[in-house]
Amino acid sequence: MAEDRGTPLVELNDISISFGGIKAVDHVSVDLYPGEVVGLLGHNGAGKSTLIKCLSGAYQKDSGEIRIRGQKVEINNPRDARAHNIETIYQTLALADNLDAASNLFLGREITTATGLVDDAAMEAETRKIMARLNPNFRKFSSPVSALSGGQRQSVAIARAVYFNAKILIMDEPTAALGPQETQMVAELIQELKRQGLGIFLIDHDVHQVKALCDRAAVMKNGKLVGVVNVDEVSTDDILAMIIAGKKPEHLAA
Amino acid sequence: MTDTAHAPADAPRKRSLLETLEVDTRLLGMIGAFIVLCLIFNFVTDGRFLTARNIFNLTIQTVSVAIMATGMVFIIVTRHIDLSVGSLLATCSAFMAMAQTVWLPNALGLELGSAAIAPLAIILGLIVGALIGAFHGWLVGYLTIPAFIVTLGGLLVWRNAAWYLTNGQTIGPLDETYNLFGGTNGTLGPTWSWIFGIAAAIAAVAILFSSRRNKVSHEFPVKPLWAEVSLAAIVVAAILGFIAILNSYEVPTARLERLFEARGEVMPEGFTTGYGLPISVLLLIIVAIVMTVVAQRTRLGRYIFATGGNPDAADLSGINTRLLTVKIFALMGFLCALSAVVASARLTFHSNDIGTLDELRVIAAAVIGGTALSGGIGTIYGAILGALIMQSLQSGMAMVGVDAPFQNIVVGSVLVIAVLIDIIYRKRTGAH
Ligand SMILES: Nc1ncnc2c1ncn2[C@@H]1O[C@H](COP(=O)(O)OP(=O)(O)OP(=O)(O)O)[C@@H](O)[C@H]1O
Ligand SMILES: [Mg+2]
């Protein structure tokens, strides 16, 4: 079924990376098509974050290859990833606590005036616009993000990832700290971005959420890929079984 | 989520007066402490502390440490430290002294006192300072040796490299143009000081109101107009008052006579004039403005503070934090060289012990000025005010006749207490 969709947006082929003796990611291959959401699932420490960090440039893989639109690419640092329109929401959020929301949103890509100085007013205005869509209750534009709640911080990280017209979006547990209303808004956002043709990797421990939002789910266990399934063809119990037992369900294991 | 969805953006709670005025309470506290300190010394010395003469001396004594303290803010904000600044100052001073008295005259056949000597020596010195700083930054950023170790090594290396440059000799007298940066030997005089003061006052008011206009155009909250106007009035009064004081410190008659004689003229009967703004203080003001703009308005400054707040986040945002480290230390080295010009010009010679213990004064100035050793927080004006407080304390105690050992005990204690107060203040206000 994958053949009739043309070239994948992202191909992670045979990726491995280890820390000391631990094989955090062990020969994992996953791909992602435009307009598709692929869920990454697995127990704590399965290697999900490590895998996507190889794509976002935070880590350098030990072996394997990354292809974007069929082209083999080298991603050695986060700048390379951004150059390929890859945006990431990290599990740790990666915010500078001492700076305000606007400075964090534009960090590394500041709006500057004609004289080359940073234009804080313009950046704050843009931040107000995007936050109005993501979290309308958000008010603390001039406080450092250390003064924000966990969910507000997460909104800032999400805003940063979606503001810059990403083609490939990586979301590592983006709604872990969000309230129900905000989680719903992020779900709607994901569906809208999907319609716009973005490819999204979504790491989430909530199997129901994955069933609802994703087209396919990739399950990892102890650094290895258990399998990739179309979410329509499996039940939540099947997915849970894959996560816990580390085996593909009988009826799919062909 | 609190239910504020329907409240207008900026009205939901009553704001205190200080909040409305957006006053930096920490800065206010420091200025208050400084004023109290001055008044106490003035009382104890029967009014000798707050004379034009002493204020003039205080400002020129503060310059060298204050210039380096602005660079130390960036170093500490990025969670590093530089223990080598005093030694680096000595090496730059030795280099520039040798350049103007020996190397340039020998290499280019220039006489000491010829117009090109001072600029050439200073430019070479600034380059040397920046290169040594960049080298420190490379060791810290790319080879990941802790800054504490790199600059502790540098403390020993550069102090003694300076010794080898001059064979341990005192080098002087230095070039006259060069000595203009020392303070007493180079002042603007009353007329130019007034011109500078008025220009500065106009610029300050213009900046205040253009930033207000910018906020209004984006429909952000602004403080009430009366508050803005009073703030502008205070700033203008402070600038012009400072100039008036410096102008009222009169050049001694004997010295004036010598100046006229040197120009081949006779001094008119009863002629007097004030010193006005020292060139070294003008230099500090320029450094302060440039460094503040860098800190608040440039990408470099934004990256420095982001890296200090969360180095991983800075990295993941695509900031080249290694190169950033090199830039920050190079800037520190450049400022050490600039301070070396001021320090040696003030003495009119280079001596081996120049800048000894400056690393401690500079770090103390930055820390008293509110730079947090945990990184991410600090201001340029705070560091300069910190340097001024340290210098006032030292000069005041000397004036009162406190023994030198006890002076050091007081300065050391003040540093510790200042940091304690800062910790308590930050806890109270909830800032980190
Ligand atoms: N920088 C690192 N240094 C050493 N070990 C690491 C590093 N990063 C990850 N690991 C190890 O790699 C393994 C996978 O970690 P990873 O963060 O990818 O898990 P995860 O699937 O994202 O888990 P979680 O659901 O808890 O977020 C773990 O055993 C972890 O300890
Ligand atoms: Mg993870």
Automatic annotation (TrEMBL), chain A:
Q: Which SUPFAM superfamilies match?
A: P-loop containing nucleoside triphosphate hydrolases (SSF52540)
Q: Which residues belong to any copy of the ABC transporter domain?
A: 10-247
Give the membrane topology, semicolon-separated if more than one: Peripheral membrane protein
Q: Which domain of life is it from?
A: Bacteria
UniProt entry tagged with the keyword Cell inner membrane: no
Record-linked InterPro entries: AAA+_ATPase, ABC_carbohydrate_import_ATPase, ABC_transporter-like_ATP-bd, P-loop_NTPase
Protein name as it appears in the record? ATP-binding cassette domain-containing protein
The answer to whether the entry has keyword Transport is yes
One GO MF term attached to the UniProt entry: ATP binding
Annotated localization: Cell membrane
**What is one term from the GO cellular component aspect held by the record?**
plasma membrane
Keywords assigned: ATP-binding, Cell membrane, Membrane, Nucleotide-binding, Repeat, Sugar transport, Translocase, Transport
TrEMBL record, chain B:
Question: Is Transmembrane one of the keywords UniProt gives this record?
Answer: yes
Which InterPro entries does the record match to this protein?
A: ABC_transp_permease
Bilayer topology term: Multi-pass membrane protein
MF terms per GO, please? transmembrane transporter activity
What does the function comment of this entry state?
A: Part of the binding-protein-dependent transport system for D-xylose. Probably responsible for the translocation of the substrate across the membrane.
Where's it mainly located?
membrane
**Which terms are listed as keywords in the entry?**
Cell inner membrane, Cell membrane, Membrane, Sugar transport, Transmembrane, Transmembrane helix, Transport
Q: Which Pfam families match?
A: BPD_transp_2 (PF02653)
Q: Does the keyword Cell membrane apply?
A: yes
Q: Name the CDD domains on file.
A: TM_PBP1_transp_AraH_like
One GO cellular component this record assigns the protein to is: plasma membrane
Q: What is this protein called?
A: Xylose transport system permease protein XylH
Location within or outside the cell: Cell membrane
What sections of the protein cross the membrane? Answer: 23-43, 55-76, 83-103, 115-132, 139-158, 191-209, 229-249, 275-295, 328-349, 361-385, 406-425
